[in-house]
Structures are given as structure tokens and as C-alpha cells.
Amino acid sequence: MELTLTRSRFTQDCTMGEISLNGNLICKSLEDVDRGLDSSMPLSELQQRKVYGRTAIPVGRYRIEKLWWGAHNAFYPHLLNVPGYAGVLMHGGITDADTEGCLLYGTAFPKDNYLVGQPEARKLLVEPLLAAIDKGDEAWITITREPAAWIDFLHKQTPA
Hints:
The protein is of the alpha+beta class. Helices cover 22% and strands 39% of the residues. It contains three helices and ten strands; from the N terminus they run βββαββββββαβα. It has helices spanning 43-49, 118-134, 147-157, and strands at 2-10, 15-21, 24-31, 60-69, 74-79, 88-92, 103-106, 108-111, 114-116, 139-145. The strands form two sheets. Strands 1-2-3-7-6-5-4-10 form an eight-stranded mixed beta barrel. Strand 2 and strand 3 (24-31) form a beta hairpin. The longest helix is centred in the C-terminal third of the chain and has 17 residues, at 118-134. It is globular and about 50 Å long. The protein starts with a strand and ends with a helix.
């Protein structure tokens, strides 16, 4: 199973995107602020740029495993070997306050930094993903940025 998360909207508070399976849109995503991290960067640079609990994970490709989250009494997708991060899960949530570096899923953004439709997205994304892992299939996610949106966001960050 090969997922792609394409980050396409960037604000001072969050990062919004879309998750696709084999090129087919499954749901929307919401993360913390994208601070330009890339999995190929040296760990020291990642740690320098990262703000704990307020930074989207580095772009890159990550294997996904199934992890029991006792606090919620359920299994969740867990991204492995994210440099500079631990415990990165895919779970439901509404705003960047719910992420702490994890990937949130839902079906729509009625406004920036507000994601809805978590139960529907869990059925479309998480349940098939966990079922595939249970069958022994490998699951991966590649996180990218929509180039034009990223460049526009960077230009807005540069003081005149």
C-alpha cells in the first residue's frame, strides 16, 4: 500500500494537504507548521529548525506499522524512523492543537486550520490501511509539498 500526502496549503499555524492511495484522493490532512524539514537533512539541522510539538514531520518516505494506542483503546497507523521524531501517528483531530507532530485526517476544511469528517476519513483511510498491514502487506507514505504553494508561502515569510 503506497500513500502520498501532498501538502498544498501553508499558514502560520498549520499545514493542510491531501492523502492519496495509488493516485486516488482518499482524504484531507492537517499538520503543524511546515518549517522546511526534509528527511535527508542532517539530524543536527532538523533539531535546530524543529519546534517541539509545533512542527510538521520532514518530507520523505516512511514505512507505516500498526500501533496500539492504549489511551484510545484502538490501533493507529504509526510512521517509522522519522528523523528527530518519536511516536508519529495518523489520527483524527480538528486543529493544529491536536497534532503534536502527528498527521491528522478528515474529509474537508470548512476554514483554515479546521478539519472535519474524521469518522468518514478513518473508514476511507485507516481501516483499509490497518487491514492491509494485518494481511502482511507493506504500507508506506511519501510526504511531499505542492511546489507552487510552497514557494508562495516561503515568499510571504521573507521580510521585504
